[in-house]
Amino acid sequence: MKLVVFSPLRIEALAVRSGLPGVKVRRSGMGRRAVDFGDADAIGVAGLCGAVDPSLRAGDVVLGTELRSEDGKTIPCPDSSLLAEPLRRMGLESASGPLFTSSRILGRAERLALRDEGVIAVDMESAWIAEAAAERPVAVLRVVVDTADRRLASARTLVAGARGLWTLRRASAAFVDWVEACSGRPSATSARLGRMPAGEAF
DSSP readout, 79-104? Predict the structure, then answer.
């Protein structure tokens, strides 16, 4: 299977490329944008995120097994869970759960409200990329850069960002085992799309 991994920003893409030599890594840009999947058979999304779960700290790895968007859509993404075991073998623990995708940076109060809905982290791209990926398997790996009780503009964000990028580089290597696990098995994304009402595609 041909794997393509999307990262929002140049600095995130550089970190992912260094951890995934030989794998195509493309910038998706920040927010909701059209992306070119080319001839990819499997799609990875890798980048930084903001925590909603108060137990998450800067540098923690988050796997998005359900993706919710501000459009009100919910996209199951169970293939992300296949990253957990390769991450463990690398000595990295991960948290799995719902991610919320927003077109803008969410403040502390907004993230607190999402906590009551079971969301564990927020980003600005994952749900829309997964929705557009159609029948391809999709996995979402994010690394926390700011905690639930901290504003993104905090002075500590720079240090947390450096730590997050270092972890992102290391964790990205898990996509190699992930795409092998996806080979020859039905895509969970395909099964999900079969349940979506017509007209829901991005």
Answer: GGGGGHHHHHHTT--EEEEEEEE-SS
